[in-house]
Amino acid sequence: MIPTTYLFVPGNRPERFAKALASGADRVILDLEDAVLPADKPQARKAIGVWLATLDKAALDAILVRLNDALSPWHADDLEWLSAQPVGEVMLSKCESAVQVAAVHARMAHSAQVLPLIETVRGVMGLNDIARAHHVSRLAFGSIDYLLDLDLPGPGFALDAAATAIAMASRAAELPSPVAGVTPELAIERVNADILHARALGFAAKLCIHPTQVGVVREALRPDAQTLAWASRVNSAWQTASDQGAIQVDGRMVDKPVVLRAQRILALAGLPF
């Protein structure tokens, strides 16, 4: 299944690594960027490298490392360190071009992937090239940094416009739906409202900063029983129909786009169709 929850852990807090992996999050992001002070970055790289060496393949597949952005003074050291690590996917902070993606991937195994984090206006302006770059797994939105870059007072139309552009670029490049930014507040109501709003803009996953957010996000994205039952009826009727041009389910016309939506719902719930 495509991951829906990504949990950040500071790279200089190795005592939290295993707990994060056991949190139920689909992916754990070991952070070398904002969560780690400049003086602590070398030690964070060392701690992450030591821990990665203890993991089996299944655990490694659930791990990402967030690198410092390409224009930062720490990026070159990140890339040198990355070359020796068994990391299958990294997140690139403040990604602004396909060239930056290629430079990161050049330090990794051919099968590895890069998850660009779009956090700036330049990143949004370069979305089409970034989304189509080789070895990109999907896109994520760094909404808090984007507010800062565009000097926005808070969420609103401008932020939603950037989010929609990310979702559209993802679809055009045939990537999975993108990953929504973090919610700084831990209150369940706020996290739930944010992921539902992001879902309405075309997102299907979320960055989390605390283990308690993981379950809230997963529950919010899970189709409810009524929706699943509808999707199952539609799919079953379509599969058994002698003429699949258009059929009726629950007294309503169903054609191929409706069936595809029903099948996406079943896939999101991990059900066969």
Which descriptors would you attach to this protein?
about 270 residues; alpha/beta; eight-stranded parallel beta sheet; about 15% strand
Q: Could you please describe the fold and organization of this structure?
A:
There is one protein chain. This protein is α/β, with parallel strands linked by helices and 273 residues long. The protein has helices spanning 17-21, 41-52, 57-60, 75-82, 98-105, 121-125, 127-132, 143-149, 157-172, 188-200, 211-221, 225-240, 256-268; strands at residues 5-10, 27-31, 63-67, 89-92, 113-118, 140-141, 179-180, 205-208, 247-249, 252-254. The strands form two sheets. An eight-stranded parallel beta sheet has the order 6-5-4-3-2-1-8-7. It has a two-stranded antiparallel ribbon with strand order 9-10. Helix 5 (98-105) links the parallel strand 4 and strand 5. The longest helix has 16 residues, at 157-172. The two termini are 14 Å apart. The model has no long low-confidence stretch (mean pLDDT 94).
Write the layout of secondary structure elements.
Blueprint: E1 5-10, H1 17-21, E2 27-31, H2 41-52, H3 57-60, E3 63-67, H4 75-82, E4 89-92, H5 98-105, E5 113-118, H6 121-125, H7 127-132, E6 140-141, H8 143-149, H9 157-172, E7 179-180, H10 188-200, E8 205-208, H11 211-221, H12 225-240, E9 247-249, E10 252-254, H13 256-268
Parallel strand pairs: 1-2, 1-8, 2-3, 3-4, 4-5, 5-6, 7-8
Antiparallel strand pairs: 9-10
Helix pairs in contact: 10-11, 12-13
Low-pLDDT residue intervals, each spanning 5 or more residues: none
Major sheet summary line: 8 strands, parallel
How would you sum up the global shape? globular
The percent of residues in helical segments reads 40-55%
Query: What is the CA-based Rg, rounded?
Result: 20 Å
